[in-house]
Amino acid sequence: MRILDSSATLTRELGKICLGGRTIQEQLDNGLALLEDDYYRQLLDPARAREWCRQTGLNDGEDLLSVMRIARAVADSQDRGSSGYMVHMDTRQSGILLLSLGMKDQTALACIGLLDNTPSDVYSALAEASGGLTRDEMKKAVVPYNYGGVAEARKLLGPGRADLFFRVYRDMLPCPDCFRAACLEAWDPTARSYRWTLPDHLEVVQVVENFDRSVSASVYWEDETGRRNSVKVCPNLPGCLPRGSEGTRGIGANLTHSLDAYILRELVRRCGRNQTYRRRFSTLVPVPDGSDRVSFSSSRAADIFSSYRATGMASLRILEFTEDGDCLPRKYHQALGEAVRALPDSEFDVVTVHDEFMCRFDHAQDLRNCFSRLMLELYRGSLFSYFAGVFGMDLLMGTPAPAMEERILEYDYFLS
Fold it and tell me: Virtual CA dihedral for 230, 233, 234, 240, nearest 10 degrees?
């Protein structure tokens, strides 16, 4: 992964907001151009910033505020050596990304650009392969179709063009397409709930209640304090309809977004609690795998270890419940050790909204590194095999490639 120091991160953000650019280098070049002769300082004046937005094709509403905010951040950084500016980073193509990595789909990962470290756009790649659909049409169809929206894709594209879309999607995203179909098949119209557990041992309970042909779904989870939380999904949403109804069914969407939420939680933990995690890990004792000396002082730590055994992904949440001298299987100890050694040097706060992450600009590179590390753990793990077992699904899974692990860590474009 390309390393950006604090100054370069801020310069890149300046170029990205004001002049765009697809690659990191293009954004850096744009920012450097604005730094020449302190041109960016003109953007501190609202009238000049508004005129700048109009000349460059930006709007003079939200874009104007973003332009002035980053110009002020650069000025503060250069004048005082610090700024409270928060860098905003979105996960690119998050649903397809998580499915492709978790299912080891080399074909889909090539569409994303991971094989050659390029900021490829999966919607553009699908459109080009179709020879007849535009990128905008692809994006509008892919988003609902990922989670089973066959009827919606047909409605958007029309019968003939929809069939072309289905074929291209299946050929270029074979594992995500298999997951989509398997989740539809796994939907049980008589079920009252669905349950699964994530690597940090937070259990998701999707409660389904039928009311006059509409469906209301509530998702429950328990946080670190033991408090129960819930999210209510409104009736009549396409993702919550029972078998036989028009629209999609909710297993695929909820599995994918529960994984999204795990990534979010783990990222916040690893950026904000790394000193505690290092100290706790140093007190743990590795013992041979299968040894009867394996022991945990708390039932919560034992539960999180059981989730590791099921999913192949080691959440650092366990270090909040271990005590000095706990004995861990050597393979598990090694997995935790790799994650701990990859933690940032300093602790910092991360603000999250779904798949968008924000932090101070001087911590942006650390956040990107943590995210890449989590993507590697997803690729190495067996989370989707666990999902297949829970729901009785027959999933198409690729074979992990050792060379891919280095590419994942070096990939520059998970967050944009």
Answer: -150
Q: Which residues contact 305 (CB under 8 A, 6 or more apart)?
A: 296, 318, 328, 332
Q: Which two tokens stand for residue 246?
A: 């028009």
The secondary structure of 350-373, three-state, reads CEEECCEEEEEHHHHHHHHHHHHH
Output the pLDDT for position 229.
54
Position 89 in a domain: no
Structural domain boundaries, residue 393: 258-410
pLDDT of residue 228: 53
Residues 253 and 267 placed together within one structural domain of the fold: no
**pLDDT reported for residue 59:** 84
- Give the pLDDT score at 29: 94
From 257, 282, 299, the end of a domain falls on 257
Q: Indicate whether 367 belongs to any domain.
A: yes
- Give the pLDDT of residue 151: 85
Please check whether residues 197 and 216 belong to one and the same domain.
yes
- The CB density around residue 98, as the number of other CB atoms within 10 Å, is 24
Tell me which residues of the chain have a pLDDT lower than 70.
209-249
Q: Which candidate, 120, 123, 128, 174, places its Cα nearest to that of 411? A: 120
Q: Residue 319 in contact with residue 266, Cβ under 8 Å? A: no
Read off the pTM: 0.88
